[in-house]
Amino acid sequence: MRQALQQAALAVEAGEVPVGAIVVRALTVIGRAYNQVELLKDPTAHAEMIAITQAASAIGDWRLTDTVLYVTKEPCPMCAGAIVLARIPKVVFGASDPQNAGTLNAGEIVRGVLEKECRLILQDFFRTARRQDADRP
Fold it and tell me: Taking CA 100 as the corner, what is the angle to CA 117 and CA 85, rounded to the nearest 5 degrees?
């Protein structure tokens, strides 16, 4: 999860919503990403989607049946669908997302890993964004 948090920090630097994800297979990271929606002008460029694509490319198969996805925030419905379609058997996330609670219907789900750190990076990002919006004329 710490590596996913590092990806989330890169998202902050890029002005993106700070979500980071990594895909691990046999203790090796085979996909890593942060949100790039603004950078790529692509509504599907969520950290999970990019990391899943990288992982599939790395192993040469869309079936990620022996992997674990670590993500700093509970996946949205789009990402939850991709997780199921990629057959990722285990998802570990940090911060819960009340808007997306329960949308993830994957095999094993581990919630709340480094939750405080994952929530804090999101809260700081949005607090700063709101402050900048308030300062605009």
Answer: 100
Q: Return the sign of the alpha-carbon dihedral for residues 18, 26, 49, 104.
A: negative
Amino acid at 98: P
Tell me the pairing of strands 68-73 and 90-95.
parallel
Sign of CA dihedral 111, 83, 29, 7: negative
Tokens for 89?
């058997």
Structure confidence by residue, pLDDT tens digits, 3-25: 999 999 999 999 999 999 999 99
Active site annotation includes 48: yes
The H or E element spanning position 73 is strand 68-73
Q: Which position among 13, 38, 48, 108 bears the catalytic label?
A: 48
Phi and psi, residue 122, nearest 5°: -70, -45
Q: Give the predicted TM-score (pTM) of the model.
A: 0.93
Map residue 114 onto helix, strand or coil.
Answer: coil
